[in-house]
Amino acid sequence: MSVVTITKDNFNNEVLQSDKPVLLDFWATWCGPCRMLSPIVDQVADERTDVKVGKVNVDEQPELAAKFGVMSIPTLLVFKNGKLVNQSVGSRPKAGVLALLDV
Predict the structure, then answer these.
(1) Domain tally for the chain?
(2) pTM for the full model?
């Protein structure tokens, strides 16, 4: 499944109303650790059809970053049934990203 670009306009529909768990990657183009994490997030999107994966560009969507208190990037948030159930700040290996989904 491909990565969905999440904006304040589609957040409710794509994340809160999703019938699958959602992994959100808060990132920015100028962020080195974000560029290291991005291919891992893409792999998870390709391999885990049971999970929806979205990316939030914090420069383009500051309201969403503020709503969830994202102060450092990359930040990963996991939602299940419309509720935030897990989060992580900083780059991590693929196993660490997958572990976030096992809540």
Answers:
(1) 1
(2) 0.95
